[in-house]
Amino acid sequence: MICYNCGNEVNTEGTNCPFCGSPLSAAAGNQQQFNPQYNAAPSNSSMDAKTASIICYITWIGLLIAVICADKNDPLFKNHLNNALIILISGMILGVVAIIPILGWIAIAVGEVFLLVCAIMGIIAAANNETKELPLIGQFKILK
Predict the structure, then answer these.
(1) How crowded is residue 122: how many other Cβ atoms within 10 Å of its Cβ?
(2) Per-residue pLDDT band at 120 (split at 50, 70, 90)
(3) Nearest residue to 30 via CA among 2, 66, 4, 6
């Protein structure tokens, strides 16, 4: 049996919880009580904003997972989702530019290093719960 007040598993047949002392009988209304300081209630299955903000920088698969699992109205997540989308789109544009011989190859080498640095900066900002713009490409906003 689980005590509905403290959430501890009770193995005794007593009338009160040995941990918190609350009554264990359903007649005492124990089934209706809930103490919010314990995690006895089911929690929301969505991902928290900090974790989703970090994951969205890790390839397009991480971006997809974060979009599916996170709260899209959270300002921290929205900022980092926008930054990750800008990095992804910039990488695609660099891939098209790479078709040009020599100059395109130089552009993609420099550009990909820059985008990697931007992604690392974004991950660090997300881990610190900060909303920062990316250098040079941060003024572009896809999400409002």
Answers:
(1) 25
(2) very high
(3) 4
Half-sphere exposure of 117 (CA within 13 A, CB side): 10
Contacts of 16 (CB under 8 A, 6+ apart): 22, 23, 24
pLDDT tens figures, 76-92:
899 999 999 999 999 99
The token duo for 116 is 């990697």
In 33-71, which positions are buried (b, 16+ CB within 10 angstroms) versus exposed (e)? eeeeeeebeeeeeebebbebbbbbbeeeeebebbbeebe
The number of CA neighbours under 13 Å toward the Cβ of 119 is 21
